[in-house]
Amino acid sequence: MTRIAIVSALHDELASVLALMPDEHKEAVGGREFWVGHLHGQDVVAVLSGIGKVSAATTAALLIDRFKVQRIVFTGVAGGLGPGVKVGDMVLARSFLQHDMDASPLFPRHEVPLYGRARFEADAALTDALELACERMLHSLPQQLDASTVEAFGLQGPRLHQGLLISGDRFVATTAESQALQRELPDALAVEMEGAAFAQVCHDFGVPLAVVRTISDRADDAAHVDFPRFLREVASRYSGALIDTL
Ligand code: ADE
Questions:
Q1: Is the ipTM value over 0.95, yes or no?
Q2: Which of 89, 125, 157, 194 is 20 to 30 A from residue 217's alpha carbon, by CA?
Q3: How many alpha carbons lie under 13 Å from residue 93 in its C-beta half-sphere?
Q4: pLDDT one-digit tens code per residue, 8-50
Q5: How many whole angstroms separate alpha carbon 90 and alpha carbon 76?
Q6: Best mutation site among 166, 192, 218, 226 for ligand 1, i.e. most ligand atoms within 8 A of its Cβ?
Q7: Which atom of ligand 1 lies nearest, measured to the CA of 178?
Q8: Which residue's CA is the nearest one to ligand 1's atom 9?
């Protein structure tokens, strides 16, 4: 049986995964807790990635080398960048880029030195499987959220977007920075702090990766208010529903 890692950045999201793992046991390595067990009969390791690219890279390397996972699925939240990417929508990554990577003039802007590329791909088959789960989940979401939450967050008809996800060691919380990122990387759908680091490590080890992010804020001047509120009131319901349909 292949072993799959389910990774989240935040505790609330992992709690909904652990609730579905009847036999999990905890192993602590490198200051992290890895929950090893089964989910819907599948061999699973669940872990919090930590926040930022270094924490993410350490977690990915441990999952692969120590816990011998053969596939990695990351679920979490992100700031929306693309014009139609709204709070409550989901972004399924087809490729990744580190927006704060800059070794110019030695290497082109965004290129990861010595890799000869700026972009890393998500695994197509695993991402296609996650796409089906996302569609089922968005379909069932209205039953999981009460009307006042839908109203408060403007969650009518959330959509699934697919494409470029960008990562960097910065919480993007000003409209000016968000606009600068959109000018620099017009096809970027959303920004977060871990996905592209997972993608580079998974590329190094040849391990398939899929990442799905729910949009918690628009990475603008209101992001610092919208982000914690979305996490508190909505995010865990999204991840719980998604894991249920996996
Ligand atoms: N994750 C969720 N929102 C984010 C933002 N605005 N910037 C970076 N990471 C995020």
A1: yes
A2: 125
A3: 33
A4: 988 877 888 888 888 889 999 999 999 999 998 889 999 999 9
A5: 10
A6: 192
A7: 6
A8: 192
